[in-house]
């Protein structure tokens, strides 16, 4: 059954420094110090801004070691607790993905996690059997036009939305990340918070039109785009100088969030997948 069109609003719950790759190889303890309490301090104000809609919150697993009640807070507010990998970094090999899944096994089981979002929306086809073995139902780890729902073994892939301007892509295989070939292929990746940062009214209009056309767009935001960390974005200055393309991730999108929460029907991705299978 095709579920009624709704916006699938997702939150990639990661620390303020995640867009930079410079901290991926620190120890977890050093990253906790760098995070400086942000991921814990941001959760209550973020949940307040999301209310009353229910979203999918893909959580970086090491935060559960730092703050064991974090997933409980998300679940108690009625949101879906999903998985954004144990440590936020590119996972491009079977061995790395296996290791990451192993390290997160316990808390994922405790919170019945069934949804996976690869960091940087960048994964490989081999991820799907591993997700199946680890009790997942779906993944949202590619870019593709809204309305795309692909079965990969027993896993459903629900991609982050693009608007295809030059016709629908023929083959949808991982990796399908935001890069030059994707954009030159005529797909506008409006599901990315980079785009809602740069082209807010355009993205709002696209979502409105896609819903009217019967599609259910998937978009993502980050906590630091809603709740600004202290001394922001000055504390990220060095990373911005090194990679100015990260700038849109530092823009505050709480007005955009307020507008979409008010304007559109919204559900979790897990709910959407469940309804699709009925
Ligand atoms: Zn991420």
What can you tell me about this protein's structure?
By secondary structure, the chain is an alpha/beta fold. The chain has one domain (8-277): TIM Barrel (Alpha-Beta Barrel), CATH 3.20.20. The chain is 37% helix and 14% strand. It is built from 14 helices and eleven strands. The chain has helices spanning 28-35, 38-41, 43-50, 62-66, 70-76, 94-103, 105-110, 127-133, 180-184, 193-198, 200-212, 237-242, 254-263, 269-277; strands at residues 8-13, 56-59, 80-83, 115-116, 138-139, 143-145, 150-152, 155-157, 160-164, 187-188, 218-221. The strands form three sheets. It has a four-stranded parallel beta sheet. A four-stranded mixed beta sheet has the order 4-5-8-7, sandwiched between helices. The protein has a three-stranded mixed beta sheet with strand order 6-9-10. β4, α8 and β5 (138-139) form a beta-alpha-beta unit. The longest helix has 13 residues, at 200-212. The chain is globular and about 45 Å long.
């Amino acid at each position: 059954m095709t579920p009624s069109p709704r916006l699938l609003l997702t939150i990639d719950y990661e620390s303020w420094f995640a867009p930079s790759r410079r901290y991926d190889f620190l120890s977890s303890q050093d990253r906790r110090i760098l995070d400086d309490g942000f991921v814990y301090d941001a959760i209550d104000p973020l949940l307040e801004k999301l209310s009353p809609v229910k979203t999918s919150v893909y959580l970086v697993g090491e935060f559960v070691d730092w703050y064991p009640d974090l997933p409980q807070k998300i679940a108690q507010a009625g949101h879906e607790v999903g998985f954004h990998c144990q440590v936020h970094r590119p996972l491009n090999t079977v061995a790395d993905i296996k290791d990451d899944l192993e390290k997160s096994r316990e808390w994922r089981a405790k919170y019945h996690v069934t949804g996976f979002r690869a960091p940087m929306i960048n994964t490989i086809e081999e991820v799907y059997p591993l997700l199946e073995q680890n009790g997942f139902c779906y993944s949202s780890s590619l870019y593709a036009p809204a309305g795309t729902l692909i079965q990969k073994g027993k896993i459903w892939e629900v991609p982050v939305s693009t608007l295809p301007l030059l016709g629908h892509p023929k083959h949808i295989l991982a990796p399908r990340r935001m890069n030059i070939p994707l954009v030159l292929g005529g797909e506008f990746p409006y599901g990315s918070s980079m785009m809602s940062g740069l082209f807010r009214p355009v993205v709002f209009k696209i979502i409105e039109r896609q819903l009217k056309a019967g599609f259910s767009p998937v978009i993502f935001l980050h906590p630091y785009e809603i709740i600004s960390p202290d001394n922001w974005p000055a504390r990220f200055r060095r990373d911005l100088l090194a990679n100015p393309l990260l700038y849109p991730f530092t823009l505050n999108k709480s007005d955009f969030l307020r507008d979409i929460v008010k304007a559109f029907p919204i559900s979790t991705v897990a709910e959407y997948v469940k309804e699709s299978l009925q």
